[in-house]
Amino acid sequence: MKLKSFLFVTVFFFTTSISAQQSSAGWQNLFNGKDLTGWKRLGGTADYKVEDGIIVGRTVVNSRNTFLVTEKEYGDFILEADVWVEDEEGNAGLQTRSHFDAAAFNGEGKVFGRQCEIDPTPRRWTGGIYDEGRRDWLYPMQLNAQAQNAFKKGAYNHFKVECIGNEMKTWVNGIATAYVVDTIDAKGFIGLQVHGIKDASHAGKKVCYKNVRIKTTGLVPTPFPSNVYVSNFVVNNLTAYEKKDGWRLLFDGKTSKGWKSAKGTSFPEKGWIINNGTIAVLDSEGKEATNGGDIVTDEQFAAFDLSFEFKLTPGANSGVKYFVTLAEDSKGSAIGLEYQVLDDTLHPDAKLGRDGNRTLASVYDMIKADKQKRFLRPTGQWNFGRLIVYPNNKVEHYLNGVKVLEYIRGSKEFRDLVAISKYVIWKNFGEAPQGHLLLQDHGNAVSYRSIKIKELKW
What we know:
This protein is mainly beta.
């Protein structure tokens, strides 16, 4: 009897100690391991059940995306969960600070908000950040390609999502995956997704969630490793992380500092306007470089990562040029490699050139951008451009976070393309060791903002 009492007391104090440690750490279990108390289903018709202490959702044909969401809303938090997706062609996700529009889809309702993607397909975008039911992709995993192998097929994967202030960071199996700085959604519910399917052969596939827990007090931001791109939606802003990582703004949102006319020593007196955090070329009926003319950076750059936002007006044409030397004798716009900025639908240039090599995000007149329609934001909305020139002369173009082309400056393939382009008349076109960056005046109204750069060195 005394031995039993001793064992009881020992077990009691041991378990109490463990509970106290968990409590002091601030973690709360969102799932009690027995039933779905504190949760509710929204969106589609997929079913969720508790099986052997695990939340199990099963796919249903012709259902919209289905979500099991918390009845409570959360603001700042760190969320952890272990997730297994049975269907390797399937999809799932962890909703954060999300909301429900009950009137959407004729009263069926729609969940919307930021989601940590779970993607076992060959695309490998697990850990990326998707804005479910609203803005689409905020952080495709091509922005952090080195983390695309973090997900392990056929096993439970550990997810960590940190939402503190306006920053959202994700980790998969301890590997840092995505980093978004946003301007909306200070709080909302947490959700577990079962993605909709249309193919009956994928019906009944399980998505399993366990060890779902959250911490809302005593939060300390987890350090992110260096050299991870940040999708920053705060206009003309750099986070402390970005500054430490070598990023700086090329446009301060208020003045023309750092910019000048491509054909002079000062900023154009007409044709450009700086207002409401944007630098914009004004309309001049499509007359190239006849109003304010192109503007270029005071500085020249060799290897760099350049990010910028642009907004087109209907039928507009412009461009972001790089390796601009200003040495060429050109009557119109200054010469350089060009990230094409164009309304593909209405501007005739989209149908000229060869095989679409004058369309949006292409290397103008040389290499076509491989774009999916879903990643294009309509004219009048802000799009994100990015171009990277590595020290080894590899170049990549991105549009809204998705890589659309790559090439090697100075390679045989590059020179062959120059030889059949409008640039053939300029010797060693595009191969200068460094050059200015340029915003083009093509006679149409186009706005730019959040122009930032990181110089690259090996």
